[in-house]
Design brief:
By secondary structure, the chain is an alpha/beta fold. α1 packs parallel to α8 and α3 runs parallel beside α7.
């Protein structure tokens, strides 16, 4: 499917306000930082993470699930789930290997293993940021598999942030580093059209049905 053509078809069903928002925010989107969550079980944390991801313009999360479903509270996301794609994968090393094969450096957010402090980290290539579970943090086997570990400096008696707070700090800090880096960190043209189409479909109650009708018409006409 040609995502650009499909978007131009779907956009006729959008309000002018929604179309303007899509056109305004899409160019700043990036997949250079990919948040990867380990079996998050508190729905408020899941929601806060989705909200922070969207606010920083990354727009995709990988949720590795085993015992718990990544299920954000929609009242907390404030509509951010419309824009953020959540890819669900099994909670194991094979999923991380798959992500690494997509071209991502695996970066575990944890104070262990001689971690680099976030302010000192120099981002040079796409990174998958792995955040651990609320209680246990990043699992040992993922710490051993990770290419590097990243830690947030702490200045009080408390030795760790809530996972959603830690995620927000990392997303924001890395976004600022990307803006100042001179790197080409934004989406490719094809990925941009694919995302804009997803946003448009998600913005309409009958969006999936409209897209399905468009695809059937394309098949018939060809």
């Amino acid at each position: 499917m040609n995502h650009e053509h499909a978007f131009h078809y779907i956009k006729q069903f959008l309000t002018d306000e929604r179309l303007a928002k899509i056109e305004h925010y899409a160019p700043e989107s990036s997949d250079f930082v990919l948040p990867v969550m380990e079996d998050i079980f508190q729905f408020r944390n899941a929601a806060a993470i989705v909200r922070s991801v969207e606010a920083c313009g990354f727009h995709k999360i990988v949720a590795m699930e085993s015992e718990n479903e990544f299920n954000p509270n929609l009242r907390v996301t404030k509509g951010a789930e419309t824009w953020v794609e959540v890819e669900k994968l099994p909670h194991n090393l094979e999923s991380l290997k798959q992500i690494k094969n997509r071209g991502y450096k695996i970066l575990a957010v944890s104070p262990e293993n001689n971690a680099t402090m976030l302010p000192d980290y120099e981002i040079k290539e796409p990174v998958a940021l792995v955040f651990g579970t609320e209680k246990e943090g990043v699992t040992e086997e993922i710490l051993e598999f990770a290419d590097e570990t990243l830690a947030i400096p702490m200045y009080g008696f408390t030795r760790s942030f809530n996972v959603s707070v830690a995620a927000a700090i990392c997303f924001y800090e890395l976004k600022q580093k990307l803006i100042k880096s001179g790197l080409d960190y934004k989406l490719s043209e094809e990925k941009l059209w694919q995302m804009k189409l997803r946003w448009a479909v998600n913005s309409i109650a009958s969006g999936p049905q409209i897209l399905e009708k468009y695809q059937r018409e394309q098949i018939t006409s060809s």
